[in-house]
# Entry
Amino acid sequence: MLSGHNIVVGVSGGIAAYKCVEVVSRLRKLGAETFVIMTENAAKLVAPITFRTISNHPVVTHMFEEPKQWNVEHIALAEAADLFLVCPATANVIGKIHCGVADDFLTTTIMACTAPKLICPAMNHNMYINPTVQRNLAGLRQLGYHILEPECGRLASGATGKGRLPEPERIVREAVSILMPKRDLEGLNILVTAGPTREWLDPVRYISNPSTGKMGYALAAAASNRGATVCLVSGPVALEAPPGVIVKKVDTTCEMLDACVEFYPEADVVIGAAAPGDFHLESAHEQKIKKPGGEFQLVLRETPDILKTLGQSKGRRLLVGFAAETQHIFENAVQKIKNKNLDFICANQVGLSDRGFGSDSNVISIIMPDGSYREIGPAPKYEIAMAILDKVKSVIDERQD
# Structure
């Protein structure tokens, strides 16, 4: 699968460095040529000869050691790379790469490399959630680096939390997807909704929900990466627009519906990942509402149901919904499929810290109209998005058979 591809693997000094041995082994079995660079601290955890044996190439551990062949070695590796993988990536090496510090062979080579770069963070939970580390990771994402989120689990310290290096199989799968991206959605126009909506009470107050739009934005990015033409109708969120995606910003549920109706005639697939408000004030106040000094009542009316409205004129389109529930998840999701004329629905439980609103990861059940279902996760939302798009593709293929 990876024959003809050169992968440079940078191993930094985290205890998870031992897992990278299997990563290199798996990449080799897929036909890739692997070249390993180790920091001095990494070499204290795993013997360089191990990587040399597995990769079948010399391992670089020091900036000024005698070169194995006559060239400027870090430039040669940077130019040869089709992918630069840092596994594990410690907080230290992440910070140095983001800030442009090049004081060892790993950071010097990655700075000279123009190939795609995949960073696999692994560290103590408190280190990972530290605002400085998160700022550095966000900065690398903006620079185009691929970040494979760590997993939750038991860490080397004995504590449990997010910071565990993903299993080698998942790291290799991510590397393969970068080197050989699917383009199986080319020719499709996909409409995605994301984020919350706001229903205003007066000029300074509104009713909303905790949706951050991460799931919808992940879907838009994944669909675009797989070749689709994507229109993203987004409520108010603090996220960067995915490259190559048409974005329509809206505020209220009615505005979101109007934007969807505008793009609907061209859509082949609609994925309603937004969390639009279900109620709006019967009559919003033009001026700020003052405290009355006692009981105060608001009269709310239902907002239009976006997916149900679109489902009434679905035609040959494929319509996918989301059901964020706190109880009776399966029953409520199945009912929504029928009421909204959906092809399938993605149901998930909200209100838990490790999934749903605001989380980087999720657990969903893809439920079909006949009641069959498949559970996906826990996994980062981009991986969840790819799984949903796999289902979209399979339903489209079944219709064409």
Summary: The longest strand covers residues 318-325. The domain at 6-179 is CATH 3.40.50.1950 (Rossmann fold). The first helix runs from residue 17 to 29. The chain has two domains: 6-179, 189-284+296-400.
